[in-house]
Amino acid sequence: MTEEIQHFTAAEEHDQHTSALNADATPSSLETAKPAPEPVPATRGTDEEVAEALFASDKPVTTDESEPPPLLEPVDPEPLLPELSADNITPLKPVATADPEPVPASTPEDTASRPRLAVDALSDVGCVRTNNEDAYGYDSELGIFVICDGMGGMAAGEVASSNSVAALVNTFAESAGTALPVSTRLQQAVHTANTTVWTMGQLPEHKGMGTTAVAAALDGQKLIIANVGDSRAYAFQNGLATQITVDHSYINELIRNGTLTRENAHLADLHGYESVITRAIGVSETVEPDYYSIDLTPGTQILIATDGLTRYLNGDEIATILQVTPFESTCANLIDLAKRRGGHDNITCLLLLVLPPESESQPAAPSAA
């Protein structure tokens, strides 16, 4: 894989998958997630207890059923393709905060240095829930793309995710006229989202609510990604795929501290902790995101998705769908497959495709006779 992937804080081993891609695309506009029409009755009914536990203690808490539905046997469509090496993952220093001098929000040079992107996004209530606690939003002009998966039960989960998305996009937009680096602007947006959800969560009707978040921001030819929780970001390029983010989950914490290894993790008896997350937006006054940076080149695709998708599809399967599906239909096809495999949670995905420079995508003008 030609792009360099960097981790701003503690670098972890990335899940390694394979893929191939080739698609045409059309950019879409700023949107937020909406519940799908005619949902079927819900059977979950445990969000309030989960949210209360997360609010009241420092213990990791589940944002989903303690006994998630069994998954179908995964398909391995490309077993012979090489795996992506993670040798070029390097820690970066934390971004600095400073009071900058105002500068123009954008300049012709800034616009020229950024790649052209096509965007496709979709959210679905799934097959069981009656409400959609996922949310997404983006602004292609500003180069900010966000998904969130709320928790806290019924309206509270929706409040957490939708307000987190709004805070992330709006805070990033407000800093566009400053000299702050994109990484710092994204960091500020994440912390503002956390403060917003935390403050709203002090109301009795919202007590204990929180949300996962994946936010991606364009920085020249790079994409900077902030992650809190177990929603994910994947990259696909040149026949290779990799999971960029590392889940903030109970099992991953055991791997981080050496209690388990990736090889023996599937043997662990987690006693209902399979779906537990260890970090979320809005569950405490401060938040500790992980940050990543990835180089973008034409043909690169970036997928950010909630666990309603990734619990049913592995990286190889996602890669295959990207390879054989027109870009504008990809999110719909991914969601459809997740629903056919159970769809017990809300499902949201946002897909980016790096387009070739405009000069390369248009035929050359004929020379004068």
Account of the 3D structure:
This protein is an alpha+beta fold and 369 residues long. It has one domain: Phosphatase 2c, domain 1 (4-Layer Sandwich), CATH 3.60.40. It is 25% helix and 22% strand. A hairpin with a 4-residue loop joins β5 and β6. The protein starts with a strand and ends in an 8-residue tail after the last helix. It is globular and about 55 Å long. It contains nine helices and 14 strands. The protein has a six-stranded antiparallel sheet. It has a six-stranded antiparallel sheet with strand order 2-10-9-13-14-4.
Layout of strands and helices, then pairs:
Blueprint: E1 5-7, E2 16-18, H1 47-56, E3 61-62, H2 108-113, E4 116-124, E5 134-139, E6 144-151, H3 154-174, H4 182-200, E7 210-219, E8 222-228, E9 232-237, E10 240-243, H5 250-256, E11 276-277, E12 290-295, E13 301-305, H6 307-310, H7 315-324, H8 330-340, E14 347-355, H9 358-361
Antiparallel strand pairs: 1-12, 2-10, 3-11, 4-14, 5-6, 6-7, 7-8, 8-12, 9-10, 9-13, 13-14
Helix pairs in contact: 3-4
Question: What labels would you give this structure?
Answer:
alpha+beta, Phosphatase 2c, domain 1, 369 residues, disordered C terminus, 25% helix, six-stranded antiparallel beta sheet, 14 strands
- The total beta strand count reads 14
Helical segment tally? 9
The major sheet is characterized as:
6 strands, antiparallel
Give the spatial strand order of the biggest sheet. Answer: 1-12-8-7-6-5
> CATH superfamily name?
PPM-type phosphatase domain
Tally of separate domains: 1
Q: Label the CATH architecture.
A: 4-Layer Sandwich
Compute the separation of the termini in Å.
Answer: 44 Å
- Computed Rg: 20 Å
Average pLDDT score: 74
Strand content range? 15-25%
